[in-house]
Design brief:
One of its GO terms (cellular component) is chaperonin-containing T-complex. Pfam families: Cpn60_TCP1. The protein is α+β, with helices and mostly antiparallel strands. The protein has 20 helices and 24 strands. The chain folds into 4 domains: 250 residues, GroEL-like equatorial domain (GROEL, domain 1, Orthogonal Bundle), CATH 1.10.560; 95 residues, GROEL, domain 2 (2-Layer Sandwich); 135 residues, GroEL; 66 residues, no CATH class. The strands form 9 sheets. A 4-stranded antiparallel sheet has the order 9-16-15-10, with helices on one face.
Amino acid sequence: MQSPVLVLKDSLTRESGSKVHHANIQASKAVADIIRTTLGPRSMLKMLLDAQGGIVVTNDGNAILRELDIAHPAAKSMIELSRTQDEEVGDGTTSVIVLAGEMLHVAEAFIDKKYHPTVICRAYNKALEDALAVLDKISMSIDVNDRSMMLGLVKSCIGTKFTSQFGDLIADLALDATTTVGVDLGQGLKEVDIKKYIKVEKIPGGQLEDSKVLKGVMFNKDVVVPGKMKRKILNPRIILLDCPLEYKKGENQTNAELVREEDWAVLLKMEEEYIENLCVQILKFKPDLVITEKGLSDLACHYFSKAGVSAIRRLRKTDNNRVAKACGAVIVNRPDELQESDVGTGAGLFEVKKIGDEFFSFIVDCKDPKACTVLLRGASKDLLNEVERNLQDAMSVARNILKHPKLVPGGGATELTVSATLKQKSSSVEGIEKWPYEAAAVAFEAIPRTLAQNCGVNVIRTMTALQGKASLLHANGENAWTGIDGNSGEIADMKDLKIWDAYNVKAQTFKTAIEAACMLLRIDDIVSGIKKRQAPGSTQPSKPTIETEGDADNEQMIPERWPLLVYATTWTTILTVIVAVTSFAPEFAFVWAIAPSSSFSQVCQDQKEGSVRVPFDVPSEIFCLPAEMFKKSKMDLVVPPIFAAIVVAASACLVRALGLWEVDDVED
């Protein structure tokens, strides 16, 4: 009988087949169920407690999922799905998780019926193509210059957020900020970088209505010398630097030996002249404000204050970039490279204000700012954090509309239309792909069904009425604008209620959800316990394994024999040391072995002639060696090494006999 072959170590676990599919589907459904109640205007809130005791109260899907400590790999991929959606379009993080979970849920029945995952994925991809075609058909173009319509769209998109009662204010802030930093690239293209050129500054205190968008930037800095430098300048000339205005330290350590006292004054004079030269190169452009990302020496501050120039030092690079975008300045690395075109003249006002206990610098009233700051005021930090999250979503929606000015109906109307269209087309799908294709059509109804559940209405009656209207309108060749009013749960026309979604948000939601579902369905094997990759040359040798015929899993033999190996090695070392000592001190020449029941209280009482007395407690079994063997003679340098070699060889034979030492031929 052939012995089994061990491929994976015992520390590795492997799961395969339908068991993996069911585990992945259940994990994905669990993640979807966590945030299912956070969809819609009547969504519930989640309270999250972190390890430091902090509390986060939010209904933002991405904010909830990124705080969770998930163990299952499929659940981790779902969380990554939400993060990707947030980075791409900034909205729809909850919808994409709910839709992906539903796609996997309806696929579970086909897995039980032994459908191949490739067949299911092929049907899902075909359904995705048809769904995107439906989106193109029902989408509506808008005019981005129509502010009222833009505000209504942004407001409807953030109506599901916790701060929906402040929808008008947040929509105004988001639209003002995105239109400020938008750059027209020509040929109908527009760049809106909200992460780089829009900064949200949260200052507790005041009311939320005091929040505003600054046509410029603000940062938490004061002038270097408050008593001598101006804190308010109209139409300032601004110079931005990325270099220190202090004495340059050498790269290598230099020692100078001063013989005369006047030499010290010469060194100080050289340093002063160097800094003075830097300041002269800057002051010849007659600036009103100098901002540097690096240090600013006291001597440079003296020259600037004497010339009536305000200075700010150690500003963050991101803030410095925003200042450059706002006032039209160019950041310079060396003062001797300054030109007149590098001076920023686009700002209308520089002012330092004290808010609370801190000073803030404002560079505002810019002529054509391509960077801005959103100043948020509120009663508490928790409120400000939630408002900031909702504002980020609103700015993402406004950016998406500016880049792709197309709308689709909200309130689940788009999903119902897609579902009705796919159900009708499923009859034309050939082969066994027809049933997964139809199941994908049913999965799209998860969004309106979840909205109805969160409103507290009768879900079965509401969904039956919606499906009937959607099918009737689609059969007549009309676009179905019928959806669910997320506030009341009633069936209504989304066009009348002005409830919209951005086209690219909805398209990205469909793509991400179906592609993620297909990816998880294609996983049929999970191997856990794999070691992390190490740098080349730093890998440690793996633990040796011992395989015997008929027992391939004999890896545990080494841990069982390890005490015996330690025992034999220890006594071999002790005996060798004793033999070596006897060559120099024959009066202490003795060797003993310990039995398991030995007692250390027994003393050797025998004092035979020619033997050596042991002056301390020894084990019960004592082997005294004749001292004459080790007396000084011509063999002094020969006998101890020979005896040591005999002891080592005997111990090695013992170890080999016990099977503790295996000698195998290793081929590279």
